[in-house]
């Protein structure tokens, strides 16, 4: 599939991570810079400029992410069947880049829905092939670190986007539509870096001596894979859309210009913790690391539920980001560990499909609780689901990194 990893398979550290993984991280950085510039303002734009309800925000965000998840399962299977990753990744990033101007032009909530829908289709097309490509490129003993690095670079873009949004909002006197136009530039750069910086050995399934992937063949995925799917689904049910973090900050009086600071704080903590968490995932019990991620999310929900001011909200947001850093790269590593190489993109597609469908339900429920009872109810429900997940995790077998396995 991809270029072979370095011959010295026992090298460690950032320098040992293949250049293709670094390039994929930079691609993610630019696209997240673009996406989060928009998304850090989008919930407020929908509610205050276009007049949408919080329930509508939850429905739109949930459908958008579910769309990405459904698309991922098909793109993953197609990637495995063709024996190719990069072409699908380029198509997905390209479609996402094309959608960015629609947010700036949107006169109604329907336009925003269409733009989010198309953008998430692009995310769905690229997600599973890209994640499988990381596993193809990275040596097994650096897999956790490689996913952590890509996630960290991705998240650098995720806090850079809101920072840029704050600066542009100040520069253009709160004109959200003008700010949205600047998202086009990094989106285009992400496609250019992907085309130029990532190499793959193209070979179709027949020429490679492998049978084409069929849905029935996915039954060969081991039981451990389905355990990982269950863990990811539980976390998604507990976490819902990050749009609610932005709305929570607004609910305690944070000025519109500074609302993107929410995503800056979350993404900064996420970026700083993702790579160290990935390194830990290669060295210590992965079960313990996951449990820590669950506990941090419970704390985040409690702080956000009872926050009475901006500083408390920001503390909860920081804990939320730490939870993401501890769990997201680790879950990707576990999916890669649990899936045969020929099924890897399909496995990522299934994992993300389940997570996306659960996210739809979680976001709709979060919006309903917010409108019917209040913000505290939304986050208390998240904490409750996370607690149930932590109890379930305690009953699972230990998950150890390859370096510690006999």
Q: How do you describe this structure in short?
A:
The protein has 406 residues and is an all-alpha fold. 74% of the residues lie in helices and 0% in strands.
Describe the structure.
It is a single chain. α3 (54-82) packs parallel to α5, α5 runs antiparallel to α14 and α9 runs antiparallel to α13. The chain has 15 helices and no strands. It is 74% helix and 0% strand. It has a single domain (17-198, 220-398), classed as Up-down Bundle (Growth Hormone, Chain: A), CATH 1.20.1250. By secondary structure, it is mostly helical. It is globular and about 50 Å long.
Short key terms for the protein model shown above:
single chain; 406 residues; mainly alpha; Growth Hormone, Chain: A; 0% strand
Shape: globular
Q: Mind telling me which CATH architecture this is?
A: Up-down Bundle
Radius of gyration, CA atoms, in whole angstroms: 20 Å
Roughly what is the average pLDDT, rounded to an integer? Answer: 80
Our count of helices gives 15
Query: Termini separation (Å)?
Result: 28 Å
Q: From the helix content, strand content and strand pairing, which structural class follows?
A: mainly alpha
Strand content: under 5%
The name of the CATH superfamily reads MFS general substrate transporter like domains
Order of helices and strands: HHHHHHHHHHHHHHH
Task: Report the major sheet.
Answer: none
Structural domains: how many: 1
Number of strands: 0
Ranges where pLDDT stays below 50 over 5 or more residues in a row are 1-9, 202-213, 401-406
Q: What percentage of residues falls in helices of 4 or more residues? A: over 70%
| Highest CATH level, the class | Mainly Alpha
CATH topology: Growth Hormone, Chain: A
